[in-house]
Design brief:
The chain is of the alpha/beta class. The chain has 4 domains: 118 residues, Rossmann fold; 108 residues, Nitrogenase molybdenum iron protein domain (Rossmann fold), CATH 3.40.50; 148 residues, Rossmann fold, CATH 3.40.50.1980; 60 residues, Proto-chlorophyllide reductase 57 kD subunit B (Helicase, Ruva Protein, domain 3, Orthogonal Bundle), CATH 1.10.8. The chain has 18 helices and 15 strands. The strands form 4 sheets. The chain has a 5-stranded parallel beta sheet with strand order 10-9-8-11-12, sandwiched between helices. α5 packs parallel to α8. The chain starts with 11 loop residues before the first helix and ends with a helix.
Length: 509
């Protein structure tokens, strides 16, 4: 056991909360102690929701453990039904409550709740994580409520997978719904986000399913394929190439479907424009959930001209497809939920950009490497008020803006450093957008001493330090490390300007 300051996934009952919060008419009764009641914080503050999540807690305390905690659970179920009048309820236990083994699912099924369907959740808190919890919860809801029925007269589909706290799920759904409409295909149900138990009951009316997020809906999609006779798409439409592949996959399922317009697509032109050519070959490291990492790696290499130097995921359930995808890039992927291991991998590879999660954004700040977020876990800034999908053709435009801007800002920073002695750009002038003057930083009076791992102390002469600052900040760290390694291997104790350029020539071969 080790203490974790950050975690990529919460316990599985948080995944169940994400499903319940995305739906309407469904209520989650959670057997949990005081202190595990953090759904309000997660969904109202981070996701900027305008209403509370549909979760009722038993909120037992230490003094209740000597009494009947099962009775607390029964009262919580009855109160939730009386107050919220849900169409269905799901019941389960938090990771702490699981230890007292009250079996909330079994208790709820024996209660008379006025004919409301009760769906028990068995989520092993100490073996599985949040994405599994969402996938299993949605699967159990579909398994209980969906049933075979006649297909709609016109071609329709269900969109499966979007949940609360998902990365750009709200806008992805709108974009893909519009894309399908351009093809002449209506969306029968979008679930779990935006659906009710009554909507789940009519899933079987659609001709096929669109699986947008395998992490949270693959089990349900496979159940629908087997029991409702609905095939599902396997391509996640993230990026230009993947969106075109998705369109072709849908047209194979519905031959009469039209080809959608690409009039608003700008990424290919942007990526091949003169302003973007200096980005070609930039080394990027990707980390997040496997679905977004696999799709983003294809966009990075094939559509923006980056070099994928490393990739990984934190959800072990999808490690196999990630390993298969990584072979195309000649890489061995990193599969871990330890952010310190991810940080060590990034530091060792010294990429020029990170495409990751909120965690990697913090890692990038510490290492001085630009980072763009491509996957959950995310923070409040990744739930923008504007329309900002990452899937479909408009999503491809958003990806270009989101990924390229950190590098463009790096170039701007480099230019400011180049002209730092100019009367307009010197340090004392301060940033113009701050409206004030910065305090001039004195030049370093003494050479800087550094101690790379496994080497003796190496000293940077003042002139070499000044020359190093002319290198763009997003590759400066790598240049410093390479120079120090070059000097240490040759027994050089003081790094001069000549040493810096000798090292540059050595590593450029």
């Amino acid at each position: 056991m080790k203490l974790a300051v950050w975690t990529y996934e919460g316990p599985p009952h948080v995944g169940a909360m994400r499903v319940a919060t995305g739906m309407t008419g469904l209520h989650y009764v959670l057997h949990a102690p005081q202190g595990d009641t953090y759904a309000d914080l997660l969904f109202t503050m981070i996701e900027r929701r305008d209403r509370r999540p549909p979760v009722t807690y038993t909120t037992f305390q230490a003094r209740d453990l000597g009494a009947d905690t099962a009775d607390l659970f029964r009262r919580a179920c009855e109160d939730a039904v009386a107050r919220f009048r849900p169409e269905a309820i799901i019941v389960g236990a938090s990771c702490t409550a699981e230890l007292i083994q009250d079996d909330p699912g079994g208790m709820a099924e024996t209660m008379d709740l006025g004919g409301i369907p009760v769906i028990p959740l068995e989520l092993p808190s100490y073996q599985r994580r949040e994405n599994f919890g969402a996938d299993e919860t949605f699967y159990q809801i579909v398994r209980r409520l969906a049933a075979p029925m006649d297909r709609t007269a016109r071609p329709t589909c269900n969109i499966l997978g979007p949940t609360g706290l998902g990365f750009r799920h709200r806008d992805d759904v709108a974009e893909i719904t519009g894309l399908l409409a351009d093809m002449g295909i209506e969306v029968n149900v979008t679930a779990p986000m935006g659906s009710s138990p009554a909507d789940i009951a009519r899933l079987g009316a659609a001709h096929f399913n669109v699986l947008l997020y395998p992490e949270t809906a693959e089990a349900a999609a496979r159940w629908c394929e087997k029991n409702l006779g609905q095939p599902f798409t396997g391509t996640v439409p993230l990026g230009v190439g993947a969106t075109r592949d998705f369109v072709n996959e849908v047209r194979a399922l519905v031959p009469e479907a039209q080809r959608p317009s690409e009039a608003g697509l700008r990424l290919p032109w942007y990526a091949s424009s003169v302003d973007s050519t200096y980005l070609t070959g930039k080394r990027v490291f990707l980390f997040g959930d496997a679905t977004h990492v696999i799709a983003a790696a294809r966009v990075a290499r094939d559509e923006m001209g980056f070099e994928v130097c490393g990739m990984g995921c934190y959800n072990r359930e999808l490690a196999r497809p990630l390993r298969a995808a990584a072979k195309e890039y000649g890489l061995t992927p990193l599969v871990t939920d330890d952010y310190l291991e991810v940080e060590r991998a990034i530091e060792a590879l010294a990429p020029e950009m990170i495409l990751g999660t909120q965690m990697e954004r913090h890692i990038g700040k510490r290492l001085g490497i630009p980072c763009a977020v491509i996957s959950a876990p995310v923070h409040v800034q990744d739930f923008p008020a504007r329309y900002s999908p990452v899937m479909g053709f408009e999503g491809a435009n958003v990806l270009f803006d989101t990924w390229v801007h950190p590098l463009v800002m790096g170039l701007e920073e480099h230019l400011l450093h180049m002209f730092r002695e100019d009367f307009e750009f010197h340090d004392a002038a301060g940033p113009s957008h701050h409206g004030g003057k910065a305090v001039a930083q004195p030049e370093e009076a003494a050479p800087r001493a550094t101690a790379p791992a496994g080497t003796d102390v190496v000293t940077w002469l003042a002139e070499a330090e000044r020359e190093l600052k002319k290198i763009p900040f997003f590759v400066r760290g790598k240049a410093r490390r390479n120079t120090e390694t070059f000097a240490a291997e040759r027994g050089v104790r003081e790094i001069s300007v000549d040493t810096l350029y000798e090292a540059k020539a050595h590593y450029a071969r």
